[in-house]
Amino acid sequence: MVLLDLDIIKFKDQLQIKELEGKRMIFCLIRKKWLVNTPEELVRQLTLLCLIREKGFSRTAINVEKALKINKTLKRFDIVVYAKNGTPQILIECKAPSIKLNQEVFDQAARYNLQLKAPFLLITNGLSAYCTKINFEVKNFEFLEQIPTYTLVNLLIDKNEN
Question: Are the CB atoms for 25 and 36 separated by under 8 Å?
Answer without folding.
Answer: yes
